[in-house]
């Protein structure tokens, strides 16, 4: 595993490159696109374990912090949706040149929205790997804004205008809003607000779709089924699977899902 900074149009991105084990035949390359805000930090353990497993199986895996996130340049308040698309495009192109493979895009939660947005801007049609994908940026943003309301309930803020509609109006006017320690810019919020998990308009590839479920309901949710059907209707070859486990991207304690790692490594290898 190598750590380095990759230059881009909006500054340097901090990257971790996992290279294939010398004992394994190189099979392909994957760029990981992380989730939004605190979900990124909560999921680092699982992402590191999966990246290591894929490298041992013969894959190049590139983890990159988006602008204003982690150890990359900029503050979170500087981030925009278009800037993140540019970062993702830059890292994917770099990994193709470095590895000799056209990378797949691996997204977790909102990272799946970003994968769908950047795919049409690449010179190849990337295969996709989705972990618990967010299907609507508008809904995801609404859930994030509600954290502000929750803080009001707990007595941190009691302003009567702390409703999601009022916050949307503030963002639309160009103002930034602080939520859970993150200063959300208008540009980032408005970009995410219109993002949807739709198949790219050019070309078709393979899509692996994983959803984490409770052990008693080991089946895809209605929203996931609708998403899978939409991608299949667009011509994509979709493999969807429900995995028993906890929502590791939001749990208080750091969680591991060995079953998800094993299933991902096996199915991605079969799709190579």
Tell me about this structure.
Strands 1-2-4-3-5-6-9-10 form an eight-stranded mixed β-sheet, with helices on both faces. The protein has a two-stranded antiparallel ribbon with strand order 7-8. It is globular. The protein has helices at residues 38-42, 44-56, 81-99, 110-118, 137-153, 164-172, 186-193, 222-233, 258-271, and strands at residues 2-8, 11-18, 28-33, 59-64, 104-108, 128-131, 177-179, 182-184, 206-213, 237-244. It has two domains: 2-135 and 196-271, 3-Layer(aba) Sandwich (Rossmann fold); 137-195, no CATH class. The chain is of the alpha/beta class and 272 residues long. Helix 2 packs across helix 9 (258-271), helix 3 crosses helix 4 (110-118) and helix 5 packs across helix 7.
Q: Kindly give the count of domains.
A: 2
Total strands: 10
Distance between the termini: 22 Å
Question: What proportion strand?
Answer: 15-25%
Task: Outline the biggest β-sheet.
Answer: 8 strands, mixed
Characteristic terms for this protein:
2 domains, alpha/beta, 272 residues, Rossmann fold, two-stranded antiparallel sheet, eight-stranded mixed β-sheet, 9 helices, 10 strands
Topology:
Blueprint: E1 2-8, E2 11-18, E3 28-33, H1 38-42, H2 44-56, E4 59-64, H3 81-99, E5 104-108, H4 110-118, E6 128-131, H5 137-153, H6 164-172, E7 177-179, E8 182-184, H7 186-193, E9 206-213, H8 222-233, E10 237-244, H9 258-271
Parallel strand pairs: 3-4, 3-5, 5-6, 6-9, 9-10
Antiparallel strand pairs: 1-2, 2-4, 7-8
